[in-house]
Amino acid sequence: MNAFPRLQAIRLYQKVTGRRFLEHLDELNRTQWLSRDELLNLQCNKLHRLLEYAYEHVPYYHRLFDRVGFRPADVLTDLTTMRKIPILTKAIIRENFDDLLTADLQRRKQMSPLTTGGSTGHPLIFMQDSNFRDYVTADIHRHLGWAGWQLGQVHAYIWGANFEAKTSQSIRVKLMNWALNRFVTNAYVLSEQSMSAFATQVRHRRPRILFGYPSSLYRFAEFVREHGFDDIKFDAIFASAEVLYPAQRQFIGEVFGGRMFNRYGTRELGGISCECEAHTGLHASIEDVYIEILKDGQPAKAKVGDIIVTNLNNYGMPFIRYSVEDMGAWRVEAHCPCGRELPMMDLALARRVDMFKTRDGRSVWGGFASPMFGMKGVKRFQLVQKSLDHVVARIVKDADLDEARLSEIERTVKMALGDNVNVEFEFPDEIAVYGSGKYRYAICEIDEPHARL
Ligand SMILES: [Zn+2]
Question: The pTM is what?
């Protein structure tokens, strides 16, 4: 169908509701070609405006800035003064929820709640205003454009986060799905039946782009391969919201015959960075976020560190210096052949909650288990560290799984975590999908905030 009626519908919707997704998309498509200095300048001005607003209207920040002697205007001349502001953690958000909301009643009216999934079983509830949501949508669509997609072209999602099960049937969501020409299958409930229905829809509507969690994309790719659906192909596949392991990237790209785009974002912050068509790393969306990568509280430069993000658009509930609990590294002095000067980062590292701990005090990236992906006899697997001495390996078996492979898995775990570790095998029929609809391969329960150490 011609894209025109759909675009008209979005324009009409925006006119009625005051939303600004299309304007933000135009803006981001333009600013991505600015020079590095122009981008940093734009970012600094947005950051300054947010900080002034937070000091003026958000009780938590008003008190905090006074307490630590931080003045928003200082960032205009010296960005390092930002480091006076203590890191915002999930625990602080839970304890100070009301004080983190804007006192500006007009803006409060445009706000709606969202929750993060997360593997800890303790979802974070936060509020987002409509301007933030429009920037989040615009940023996703800018990134789709990097794969050659144009507004109005059909695309498909395997998603849970932005398409809540309970709201997915609402008229507004149906209308937006039609207007943006997208369809979605719910990652919360990926079953044979739902994937079969989704495959039928894909055949019928022929989307060029598929967007989803790496684990969900992988599951759908497995399904497509198992059923020999060789005609299900995409030009580009966007993997977002969790770490994309190399083995997953290769398998998904191979099955669907398309280019893979790794995208990094979270529910509470929206898009943070994304791979462009040159596939040399992830460009940070610095018009929307101010990102710091810190090691022991200091800039990590090109080294791996904790990712700390300030979202520049959510005035309703500002997240300033928020610890995402992910790790990454800047690509210092990297110039991308695409010509965009948005800074580049690498995210080839697991979420911190997925780092395992050892008796001798090491933290081991849970990704060491990724070769078990695609191992003969293993349909799906999950490693759960219960304690420093106890790991549970959950495996959904194929017919071919034999003792030798189990020994191999046990050896791998012991090599990574130590000989003291007792590996217990469980063979469930299915591995549960966690709250957000993501599978987790490597879970360290020692990090559970409420677990006893
Ligand atoms: Zn690029």
Answer: 0.80
Domain ranges (residues) in the chain: 1-346, 354-447
Fold of 354-447: GMP Synthetase; Chain A, domain 3 (3.30.300)
For ligand 1, the distance from its centroid to the CA atom of residue 276, given in whole angstroms, is 5
CATH topology of domain 1-346: Rossmann fold (3.40.50)
Average pLDDT over residues 73-102: 93
Ligand 1 center from residue 320 Cα (angstroms): 27
User: Distance, CA 300 to ligand 1 centroid (Å)?
Assistant: 22
Report the alpha-carbon distance of residue 396 to residue 382 in Å, rounded: 9
CA of 436 to the centre of ligand 1 (A): 30
- Give distance in angstroms: CA of 124 to centre of ligand 1: 33
Task: Say if residue 99 is exposed, middle or buried (CB neighbours under 10 Å; 0-12, 13-18, 19+).
Answer: middle
Contact 189, 195 (CB under 8 A): no
pLDDT one-digit tens code per residue, 389-444: 999 999 988 777 888 889 988 988 898 889 999 999 999 988 865 544 455 777 88
- Residue 277 CA to ligand 1 center (angstroms) comes to 6
- DSSP labels for 46-103? HHHHHHHHHHHH-HHHHHHHHHHT--GGGGGT-GGGGGGSPPB-HHHHHHTTGGGS-S
Alpha-carbon distance 26 to 9, whole Å?
17
pLDDT in tens, 346-388: 875 545 445 688 888 776 766 677 666 556 788 778 889 999 9
CA–CA separation, 363 and 355 (whole Å)? 6
